[in-house]
Amino acid sequence: MTLALFLQHLANALSLGSLYALIAIGYTMVYGILRLINFAHGDVFMLGAYLAFYAVATFLLPWWAAFLLAILVTALFGVVLERVAYRPLRDSPRISVMISAIGASFLIENVGIVVFGGRPKGVLVPDVMNVKLGLGGVSVMSVSVVIPVLTFVVLAILLWVVHRTKTGMAMRAVSTDLDAARLQAIDVNRIISFTFGAGSLLAAVGGIMWSYKYPQLNPLMGTMPGLKCFIAAVIGGIGSIQGAVLGGFLLGGIELLTVAFLPTLTGYRDAFAFVLLIVVLLVKPSGLLGGRHVEKV
Amino acid sequence: MRTLGLVLGALALVSLGACQKKSSTPTTVKIGVFEPMTGANAAGGAMEVEGIKLANEMFPTVKVGDKELKIELVVSDNKSDKVEAANAAQRLVDQDKVAAVLGSWGSSLSMAAGPIVKDKKVPAIALSATNPLVTKGNEYYFRVCFIDPFQGTVMANYAFKDLKAKKAVIIREVSNDYSVGLARFFSDSFKKLTGDEGAILSELNYNTNDQDFTAQLTTAKSMNPDVIFAPGNYTESALVIKQARELGITAPFLGGDTWETPEFVDVGKQAVEGAVFSTFFATEVPITETSKTFLDAYRKQYNKEPAAVTALGFDGYLVVRSAIEKAGSLDGVKIRDALAATQRFPGAAGHITFDQNRDATKSAVIKVVKGGKFTYLTTVQP
Questions:
Q1: Is A119's CB within 8 Å of B46's CB?
Q2: Does B270 map to a domain?
């Protein structure tokens, strides 16, 4: 294998991994606050991509306006989803909320099939995302450079919010102990709504970037990325924002390098992701960067 | 007076009901439409259903014995999923008790229904499923299109004779029977033509619903093939070609009949220009009188050009309607026998005669994507 070929494989892996990382951050945030695995995250991701598509295709907005509008509407949708599907169950056993999340996921998918139609749609990729960049035999599209940059910008902003702002302090308090946080006069509902809004906004950013990289939409497009990014979040240590980014890069790297170096095992590409999940759960259940705290039972 | 009227009316209704009960023969015939309406293959399913519905609107009844029965279409969505396909087929034969089944787009989906229609003795007609295994050993499954050994040869010939290709890379959708089968027939034929056992540089795999093919394509690029044969589902294929062009691969892409969907061009855009594939029918070359009837009706109703599989949907409906008429009965075995005896039935996409494997022998056409449209290149006789 030549150096150029190896670098090309590496570039491909980084580009996929950063996309996983971007979506995994939203997953891990919601889990960090509520200990809830938001199964509808992948479908919120799909919704964001569709909104941006219609804003461009039907309302003829420029792509950046469509992007902003779509992520804001999706964030709002996340807040409403929490209000309707999760808040009424906050004092119920955790399993009820999880079932409600699965229900919400199926509902969004099937309403998506009715409203958007079952046939896939081709996305018009903005020109700035569609520039071919080449360097010494390695060639990538500009969108594959934008995504990692975006991922690290988002990571930096989130770390700043969580560790340097009052809202972030309240988030950490809610995450540690919800009732104790309420006793400290923290508006728990507001913090949870904020978290869902931010998580859904990130899902939308991920969804739109995904549709620029793989310009094809269908109502079930969120299922597999949703699962993969859940795995990425668990590998990194669910609840840890840095962990989600690390997990995303690891997962993308392992997937693509499997295909590149073990071509006969390509059919088992997804299986590798799930095997990795099992191994991490067996060896280090809290994930690579997970907290050291013991689960209270 | 009003009371009397009511009583009389009620009496009339009762007697009408009694009349209907007496005649035990049904007034409608149900034909099951077994197609993917959602999921990865939804576009293919929708195009076949268009053809079936058009035929149903033009020929809504069938003569069974001396009675004119209305044909009712029962659409069952197999969701582009092999497990769901078995459920959908079961529902059609058990619950809806259809006289015959049309579909499905996608060989794997049709194969999932195979044992079910065979078991219940309900004849089924695949419209565009080209894998030989769909009809093999199943005397209740027919098809109105050619099969992949022929299609693979056609494309291998095109690669060797027209493109003067000596080395090829194959990229297949490994979880799709159609793609794997067609890739093998292409490979066998291409090796024979070039007389070179090493003419296929590599066979690379991907899964249905995959979106990232950069790893496979980077490998393909390093082998520097003259041509890439990549049969598979239309959206995955469009993404494969798009990512190949982004990686700087310039070799021409060849594929099979599944590429002929608007979504292939819609997703692939500029990247799929010049992609060449084989299919069943081209609107530029009508074959029979039925072709003209079909084209006129379709253009009038939809105001666009039909896809080849839409013509096959139209044909499937007409063939089964004619078989029910000839059988003079709604009995599955009798309809099956009538189907098997079909000789040179004039369909929109060519004459249909079923061979001993219940497959139609037809010519193939080769099309190329040009200016975002599927353009006719040539016809290849079997």
A1: yes
A2: yes
Strand partners, B366: B278, B378
A293, pLDDT greater than 70 = no
- Per the domain annotation, does B252 fall within a domain? yes
Same domain, B50 and B110: yes
Mutate to test the interface with A, among B171, B218, B266 (most CBs of A within 10 A): B218
Q: Is residue A173 part of a domain?
A: yes
How many angstroms separate the Cα of B111 from the Cα of each of A26, A199, B120, B133? 41, 42, 15, 7
**pLDDT above 70: percentage of residues in chain A:** 97
Domain count within chain B: 2
Query: Across the interface, which of A216, A220, A266 has its CB nearest the CB of B39?
Result: A220
Same domain, B95 and B38: yes
B156/B270 same-domain check: yes
For an interface test with A, the pick among B38, B50, B240, B264 (most A C-beta atoms closer than 10 Å) comes out as B38
Q: What angle do CA B129, B153, B142 make, to 5 degrees?
A: 25
Assess whether pLDDT exceeds 60 at residue B5. no
* Range from A6-15, A117-126, B331-340 that averages highest in pLDDT: B331-340
Single pTM value for the model: 0.86
Answer yes or no: is A245 within a domain.
Answer: no
Domain closes at, from B245, B279, B313: B279
Which of B35, B214, B237 would you mutate first to test chain A, the one with the most A CBs within 10 A?
A: B214
Radius of gyration for chain B, computed over Cα atoms and rounded to the nearest angstrom: 23
Residues of the domain holding B154: 149-279
* CATH number of the domain residue B74 falls in: 3.40.50.2300
Q: Do A266 and B211 touch (CB under 8 A)?
A: no
CA distance B286 to B189: 29
Mean pLDDT of A260-275: 83
Decide if A205 contacts A22 (C-beta within 8 A): yes
Q: Do B222 and A113 lie within an 8 Å CB cutoff?
A: no
Q: Which residues of B touch A13 (CB under 8 A)?
A: 215
Spatial neighbors of B132 by CB under 8 A, at least 6 apart, are B147, B148, B149, B181, B357, B359
Q: Is A58 on the interface with B (CB under 8 A)?
A: no
Q: Is residue B19 part of a domain?
A: no
Q: Mean pLDDT over residues A94-110, rounded?
A: 92
Over residues B212-259, the pLDDT tens digits come to 999 999 999 999 999 999 999 988 999 999 999 999 899 999 999 999
The pLDDT tens digits of the residues spanning A156-173 come to: 999 999 999 999 999 989
**Structural domain that includes position A53:** 26-222
Q: What is the pLDDT of residues A119-133, one digit of tens each?
A: 888 998 998 888 888
Do B214 and A256 lie within an 8 Å CB cutoff?
yes
- How many whole angstroms separate alpha carbon B382 and alpha carbon B366? 13
State whether B305 and B264 are in the same domain. no
Question: Does a structural domain hold residue B340?
Answer: yes
Q: Which residues of B315-339 are buried (b: 16+ CB within 10 A; e: fewer)?
A: bbbbbbbbbbeebeebebebbbebb
Domain count of chain A? Answer: 1
pLDDT at B2 over 80: no
The 3-class SS string of B286-297 reads CCCHHHHHHHHH
Interatomic CA distance for residues B42 and B75, integer angstroms? 13
Q: Are A240 and A119 in contact (CB under 8 A)?
A: no
A3 touches chain B (CB under 8 A): no
Assess A126–B contact: CB distance below 8 Å, yes or no.
Answer: no
Task: Check residue B118 and give its pLDDT.
Answer: 94
Q: Is residue A253 part of a domain?
A: no
Is A291 part of a structural domain of the chain? no
Using beta carbons and an 8 Å cutoff, which residues of B are at the interface with A? 37-40, 42-43, 46, 174-175, 202, 204-207, 209-212, 214-216, 218-219, 222, 235, 238-239, 242, 246-248, 263, 265-269
| A-chain residue closest to B36, CA distance | A118
Average pLDDT, chain B: 89
